[in-house]
Amino acid sequence: MPDKYFQHSFANGMTLLAEQMPGMQSAAMTALIPAGSGTDPDGATGSATVLADLLLRGAGNRDNRALTEHLDTLGLQRSSSVGVYHTRLGCAAPADKVIASLDAYADILLRPTLPADGFEPARQLALQSLAGIDDEPRQKMFVKLREIYFPWPIGRNSLGSKQDLESMTHAGLVADHARRFVPEGAILAFAGKIEFDELTQQIGKLLGEWPGKPPAEMKTTPATQTYHFEPQQTEQTHIGIAWPTVDETHPDYYCARIAYDILGGGMSSRLFTEVREKRALCYSVSAGYASVRGIGCVMGYAGTSNERAQATLDCFLEEVFKLSAGVTPAELDRTKVGLKANTIMSSESSGSRAGAIAHDFFTRGRIRTIGEIKSGIDAVSIDRINSFLKDASRLQPTIVVLGPKELTRKA
Amino acid sequence: MPLTFKHHRLSNGLDIVAEINPDAYSFAAGFFVKTGSRDESPDVVGVSHFLEHMMFKGNDKLTWEDVNRVFDEIGARYNAFTSQEMTCYYANVLPEFTERAIDHLASLLRPAIRQTDFDTEKNVILEEIAMYLDDPGHKLYEALMEAHFARHPLAQSVLGSAQSITALQRDQMAAYFARRYGPGNMVLSVTGQMEFDEVIRLAEMYCGKWPTVSPSRDNPAVIPSGKRVELTDPKLNRKYLMGMTPGPSAQDERRFAARVLADVIGDSDGSRFYWALVDNAIAEDADFGFYPHDGCGSFYIALTCSPDVTEKALEIARAELEKVKIDLADDEVERAKNKIASSIVLSGELPIGRMRAIGSQWTYNGDYRSLEQDMATLQAVTPASLRQLMREFTFDPMTIVSLGPS
Predict the structure, then answer these.
(1) What residues does CATH 3.30.830.10 cover in chain A?
(2) What CATH architecture applies to the domain B4-207?
(3) Do you find a cis peptide bond into B397, omega within 30 degrees of 0?
(4) Is A92 at the interface with chain B, CB within 8 A?
(5) Which residues of A touch B73 (CB under 8 A)?
(6) Could you tell me if B26 lies within 8 Å of chain A, comparing CB atoms?
(7) Inter-chain CB proximity B26 and A344 less than 8 Å
(8) Mapped to the 3 state alphabet, what secondary structure does A302-367 carry?
(9) How confident is the prediction for chain A on average, in pLDDT?
(10) DSSP per-residue string spanning B327-372
């Protein structure tokens, strides 16, 4: 690996990654803990979400307020979220402040207080977020699309169900924490102004003693539904479309990235051109490559007024089917330039690089360098992408429609 | 941070402001036009934003297909946005595409505004208006601006309404363009890796012949209405509430203190609102923020909660606004300053972020502020300056608008 990328595995199964970025004052951290919504206990969906909140309500010898004030005194820009596979904690700031926060993050990971009096508000906040989904039709449509498209429980909303959140107990949550917050499979990624040797020593001292335990396993069942209509009185009809493609480790991955960018990535994409610019059927229309580990797919969206919804869906699907006839060399060339430029420009942000190397390691088991990504894009020739698209045409899209009126799919 | 500032004015009055960062991987360029919904007469409400769309439809050299294709050919991250008081067109590219980026943006800003394109795009604008009607946050914000600013032009909607857009004519738009788009009312902001002399040469070549315009902007005094408006939508589960009260303007030196104060009171983590409303789950979101405008400014409250606790949440928020005047502590000011200092460092590393920052600063104030100046001004903010600010801006009157199921 070029000398600005680093990797170290600890005996307890935790991996430390880093990318040194010359000329930067800042650093960013992304920590992925193998406790995602996919392994929420039966009958306690939403558990990882409530835990991610409770985790930050006190750790080590700092109570809720002291912990927050400590991290704020360092001026950290913080974030936390729950995905299918992980609970994610992130921060970014001038590099010395990120390093100075590591002991507090070690407390959060190893010695969270998980206070009983914090449980009820954490649960209430999750319930409120869940209720909020109904107020935002576009978001609600996507929740439904992921739910029916992906194998269960990969597509399950990380907020869980109302019933499960309501029956959740503090004791259950503490037990779940003990089961799932383990170092094996955890990934700590840093990017920016980083000294790797010092960082390794410090992380070793702080987290090396975190006792290793195998992470919780996820059992999946395949998706069965390919169409769902959600009746709702809305100004616009919200249409979501998903279909399968290669995953991120597949040799044709860059073909897929480029092909679906041509379909729906930007303002010169086919969908934007045909659906919006030529026919003015909607304001918002797009599609693009999406993935979770081992599963690649394309996700598309169009939001349009109710009387134009059927025409929008028809036009959208027509463009999808047309893609199997191939793309033009000009489309390929400009999309390659765009993807490469994006890759290089992402190297200007420590936060985006920390997230990217953590994601790479989880999905591919290694970091991709910027150079490797560029050569991957360069290697896609017109013949290769068009033969990929020909083979990829046996698709059966899954469709979700949210709005006042049901739509039909033309044969 | 090795950032250098440069400024040059073309003979037609176009200002070019540059912040050169030799460590950057990219180059960013943006044209900032000092025009927006507040500059529209009542018969053309929504024209600024609609015109922004029409810029992407080309001219005698470019078709609408060319406009988007060229941006993609140079791998640009590009877009445009319209606010109440500014319209901006920008592109972020690798340095090898500097010339094509400036050429293309400049070309965009001399549109044909063809009747057929105008008629087609009208439908897209109507779709955009419909889209935002499904978004309670946006609906609430527009209603708040309208209620708070009352007869001030900031009350006008950026998107306009379905009625105003339907009635709008192509020639009205062309006249608005001729009045407002030109040197004298715009600035070209460039940041990242570049040769500044080359940028001047390109700007001269592509923008040097543009006619100068000298529009004015009405800046009447704001008379905040202080009224309370209740909007209902039976489909909603939660209640959304916003309050607005006067604050310093974009030109006011007190705006730095205002930003610190806003973080002390209502940052998403560790603020007074966080502890009083979110930590205990009374509200899912409780923000207090600061909007500086041209010639006036506002502080705002934004709450999202269950309908049954909205009044209680508002009471708590207003009580916090009174309490902070009495018991503001040194350490909470320090924490807010540290968070803002981090965001200054992080934004300095991104050419696109700096392009927007120096472009807005020049548009509003006609000057440049370096990251070091921002940092020094931030460090000079003290608890005493915040207390003084709260004697001058007392959070009263406050206009309040809510949107919920009943």
Answers:
(1) 5-207, 227-403
(2) 2-Layer Sandwich (3.30)
(3) yes
(4) yes
(5) 333-334, 337
(6) yes
(7) yes
(8) EEEEHHHHHHHHHHHHHHHHHHHHCCCHHHHHHHHHHHHHHHHHHCCCHHHHHHHHHHHHHHHCCC
(9) 95
(10) H--HHHHHHHHHHHHHHHHHHHT-HHHHHHHHHHHHHHHSS---HH
Where do you find CATH 3.30.830.10 in chain B? 4-207, 228-404
CB contacts < 8 Å between A and B, how many?
A: 196
**Whole-complex ipTM:** 0.93
What DSSP line would sit under A189-257, residue for residue? EEEES--HHHHHHHHHHHHTTS---PPPP---B-----EEEEE---SEEEEEEEEEE--TTSTTHHHHH
**What secondary structure letter does DSSP report for B211?**
P
The owner of tokens 């018969």 is B43
Which B residues in the span 124-143 are in contact with A, Cβ-Cβ below 8 Å?
124-128, 130-131, 133-136
The closest alpha carbon to A243, from A309, A311, A148, A312, belongs to: A148
Contacting residues of A for B123, CB less than 8 Å apart:
280-281
Chain B hits for A53, Cβ within 8 Å: none
CATH superfamily of A227-403: Metalloenzyme, LuxS/M16 peptidase-like (3.30.830.10)
Which residues in B211-296 belong to E strands, given as ranges?
228-232, 239-247, 285-292
Tally of residues, chain A = 411
Of A234, A277, A340, which has the smallest distance from its Cβ to B64's Cβ? A277
A231 reaches B (C-beta below 8 A): no
- pLDDT tens digits for B168-207? 999 999 999 999 999 999 999 999 999 999 999 999 999 9
Q: What is the CATH architecture of B228-404?
A: 2-Layer Sandwich (3.30)
Question: Does the structure show a pLDDT above 90 at A2?
Answer: no
- CATH 3.30.830.10 fits domain A5-207: yes
A378 in contact with chain B, both atoms CB, cutoff 8 A: no
Q: Which of residues 104-143 of A touch B (CB under 8 A)?
A: 120-122, 124-125, 128-129, 131-132, 134-138
* Per-residue b or e along B79-112, where b marks 16 or more CB atoms closer than 10 Å to that residue's CB: bbebbbbbbbbbbbbbeebbebbbbbbbbbbbbb
Rounded distance between C-alpha atoms, residue B139 and residue B129, angstroms: 10
- The pTM (predicted TM-score) of the whole model is 0.95
List, as ranges, residues 284-313 from B with C-beta within 8 Å of A: 284, 304-306
Give me the mean pLDDT over the B155-169 stretch: 97
In three-state secondary structure terms, A393 is coil
